[in-house]
Amino acid sequence: MEKTQSTLDELDFAILSCLQKDGRMSFTEIAEHLNVSVGTARTRLNRLIEDGVISIIGRVDPDKVGFKAYAHVAVYIRPATLKEQVAQTISKMPEVSFLASTSGDYDLEVDVMCPTNNDLVEFINEISTIEGIYQTKTTLYFKVYKYAQPDLNLLK
Amino acid sequence: MEKTQSTLDELDFAILSCLQKDGRMSFTEIAEHLNVSVGTARTRLNRLIEDGVISIIGRVDPDKVGFKAYAHVAVYIRPATLKEQVAQTISKMPEVSFLASTSGDYDLEVDVMCPTNNDLVEFINEISTIEGIYQTKTTLYFKVYKYAQPDLNLLK
DNA sequence: ACTACTATCTAAATAATTTTTAGTTTGCAC
DNA sequence: GTGCAAACTAAAAATTATTTAGATAGTAGT
Question: Which residues form the HTH asnC-type domain (chains A, B) (predicted)?
């Protein structure tokens, strides 16, 4: 069992800020920025990653890479008791980039990336057959204006 | 003026896949995985980053870091001609993590991360005063089941 | 078919970074 | 005060990144 760090201090936030800007920033560079030793920067960063506070990932531009259909699918479930089960099933599908339960009039929100509109139609047909899903409403994203990390300065 | 690479080959996709898993993977390790020289791995990856095909970022876990209110806001705009202008205004707000125009009955989707529910209410009050926004509908995300990168295998 | 041009890849030396190791400092409980 | 644990620092060793020069392949022009 791991001990999860309960609170983050100034240094942790400063490290997180660095990595939000450039996930490949070296330990050395981070250390210089923050006036701590390389060892400290390394220990802190590794712990943040281990604790799941931050993960360094390569985020591809869906459009540039060939995903031409990006959509939002509102999913309605009945009976409500099947929600968890449906969520588990959907979360395993590779087209799904985001899945969450909501307070809205629909139960689950599914964001999907597909190579073509055809693939999107097929995806929606596929999930419509899942037990518990009795309706879906699909909305296409036409243009993405912003896709950003939360601004940590809001927490201060 | 830069020439943007129009097509991505097998090697590019393989590099993107590596980085989706671990954005801090070293050039050396990537090169070994893919059986190319370190120089090649480096040139390719740097080009992918320059061209904006991929960006290596630190993604923080909003909840762990202190964002306790994550919501989806549907924004209705009238007259429609103000859409671009409203989008530019909203995209500058630090709470906004995602902004897109949609094909749905609302015009813009805004995803917002706030430290508390109070901050969320204030945010919604604030955008409601923007010229052109005549209605908003807010949906809270209760539980996020999945938040992933698109699966590049779907493109093959 | 030959030459020149361009782009991509490789390989080896040099520069820089990461990792390990040992030691220091600090705070806290006994 | 003593013992202990956590966090930081600093310097050597191991690894990785960058630079440089050169090899290879494809393409356009003659």
Answer: 8-68
Tracing tokens 């799941």 back to the chain, one arrives at A52
Distances in whole angstroms, Cα of residue A147 to Cα of each of A7, A60, A137, B73: 27, 12, 23, 15
- Is-above-0.70 flag for pTM? yes
Can you give the residue range of the structural domain that contains B99?
62-141
Which CATH number do you get for residue A92?
3.30.70.920
Task: Count structural domains, chain B.
Answer: 2
Best residue in B145, B153, B156 to probe A by mutation, most A CBs within 10 Å? B145
Unique residue bearing structure tokens 């993107």: B16
Digit-coded pLDDT (tens) for A58-113: 999 999 999 999 999 999 999 999 999 999 999 999 999 999 999 989 999 999 99
CA distance B8 to chain A (A): 8
